[in-house]
Amino acid sequence: MLKIAIFNAKADVGATTTALNLGAAWQRQHKPVLLIDMDPQARLTETYKHIGLDVQKHLFRFYQSDTPLLELIQPLRNGLPLITANKELMNLDSQFGRGPATLKRLAEGLAKLQPTHAEYAVLMDCFSGIGVISLSAVFASDLVLVPVSADYLSIHSAVKVDKALNALQPVLKRRIQRRFLLTRADKRKEMTAEVAQEMRRLFGNEVLITQISEHAALAECARMGQHVFEYDAASAGARDYMTLYFELQDIIKKLPLSTS
């Protein structure tokens, strides 16, 4: 089981867009994938809430009543399986603490899911903050994908995430594999090139070659409650996410995947 946490400490960098459309790219290649909404704002959940999701089957029940993750998976109309979120996730640390037991709980839950979902890629759409809920996804992950929108404030946030991941490594006793993804790129703007150059300076080969450009289809598909391949599979946005999928496949082959 491959586990990818999609995480930046800054909001509005395209994390939810990336989780949904990367998951859809996985599906289009006939590869099993599971989406987990780990954001108390539940943006991924809200995209599909209108199709009749059971709002009582959400991730917080896994923490609150030990409901197995398998029982919380809901299939969307497009075939993508999703574990939904709600605002109660914001109270995770106050109710269950910030210690190792809470941080490792998601990893343990995914380990129990492993026997029936060994071939799955699990994509976790994380809360935009360095807190218990996001760090639990990092603890469970084989790879952290950090979306960085093409502006200078996003670079500062990416540096903050990088430092946080480095600080966690002694606890996990392993290097936390990470890749930085430039989003909302506009090749016509000088700022996009400058941000890309600064990311390369800071993070070197951990910056992905693929860039997700600012496409109308990506904004419109979310408004329509669809992923970009549902909305327009021939769009430039769809091509960007399929390119991202293939680049990640080469990286994943070299990852030291955990057995849980």
Write the layout of secondary structure elements.
Elements: E1 2-6, H1 15-28, E2 33-38, H2 43-48, H3 60-65, H4 69-72, E3 74-75, E4 81-83, H5 92-96, H6 100-103, H7 105-113, E5 121-126, H8 132-140, E6 143-149, H9 152-172, E7 178-185, H10 190-203, E8 207-213, H11 216-223, H12 228-232, H13 236-252
Parallel strand pairs: 1-5, 1-6, 2-4, 2-5, 6-7, 7-8
Antiparallel strand pairs: 3-4
How would you characterize this protein structure?
The protein is an alpha/beta fold. 47% of the residues lie in helices and 17% in strands. It has 13 helices and 8 strands. The chain is globular. The protein starts with a strand and ends in an 8-residue tail after the last helix. The mean pLDDT is 91.
Descriptive labels:
single chain; 260 residues; alpha/beta; Rossmann fold; 8-stranded mixed sheet; 13 helices
Largest sheet: 8 strands, mixed
Which architecture would the CATH scheme give at its second level? 3-Layer(aba) Sandwich
Question: Which oligomeric state applies?
Answer: single chain
- Main CATH class: Alpha Beta
Strand order of the largest sheet: 3-4-2-5-1-6-7-8
CA-based gyration radius: 17 Å
Structural class, please? Answer: alpha/beta
Strand content: 15-25%
Poorly predicted runs are: none
Q: How many distinct beta strands?
A: 8
Distance between the termini: 7 Å
What is the CATH T-level topology?
Rossmann fold
- Give the overall silhouette: globular
Number of domains: 1
Query: Helical element count?
Result: 13
How much helicity do the residues have? 40-55%
- The helix/strand series, from N terminus to C terminus, equals EHEHHHEEHHHEHEHEHEHHH
